[in-house]
Amino acid sequence: MESQTANPVRIVALTCVFAESYFGKNPATDPLAKYAKGWGTLGLYSERETPSARRPLMLRVAYPELVATLSLSFQKLGFESTRAALCARLFADSSRDGVHLHGFNRFPSFVAMIKNGGIDIHASPVLVASSGPLERWDGRVGPGNLNAWHCMDRAIALARQPSPM
């Protein structure tokens, strides 16, 4: 094991970049600075003498803290509180369950797509066609995880209905 005194590690945090680009404010004066700092922890790198030795540091964040932080961030972006809480929980669940492409790792690009109009945070899926147990829904460019949650909930409801004989 490497000694910290023999080869000191300097931590470079990307907190300021994240907080400023997503909230447009200085993290030192933003009331969400505490949470922006939490995001930065996922973007920390150890910097050694040679650039090739840089590697991501793995930090653990408590599940409830991650959900609360993401929920607050989504509310700040304009989500209604219950949708923000569900969206945050789905992001956190994906990370917790090991589906990293749908979890916290996707958060920065998700925020960017909201800000550039690629995702309509107020959109809800609309039923387009229905034929017995099959339904087709239009997500209307809403948040994908919320659309998927809605459609899965509907599929479960359809599966519970007694089949006509």
Key features?
alpha+beta; two-stranded antiparallel ribbon; 45% helix; 12% strand; globular
Describe this structure in words.
The chain has helices at residues 15-23, 33-41, 63-76, 81-96, 107-115, 144-160, and strands spanning 10-12, 45-47, 55-56, 126-131, 134-138. The chain has 165 residues and is of the alpha+beta class. Among the domains are: 1-59, no CATH class; 126-160, no CATH class. A three-stranded antiparallel beta sheet has the order 1-2-3, with no helix packed on it. The protein has a two-stranded antiparallel sheet with strand order 4-5. Helix 1 crosses helix 2 (33-41). The termini are far apart.
Topology:
Blueprint: E1 10-12, H1 15-23, H2 33-41, E2 45-47, E3 55-56, H3 63-76, H4 81-96, H5 107-115, E4 126-131, E5 134-138, H6 144-160
Antiparallel strand pairs: 1-2, 2-3, 4-5
Task: Give the strand content.
Answer: 5-15%
Helix content: 40-55%
How would you sum up the global shape? globular
Number of strands: 5
What is the terminal-to-terminal distance?
68 Å
Radius of gyration: 20 Å
SSE order in H/E notation?
EHHEEHHHEEH
Main sheet strand line-up: 1-2-3
Summarize the structure.
The chain has 165 residues and is α+β, with helices and mostly antiparallel strands. 45% of the residues lie in helices and 12% in strands.
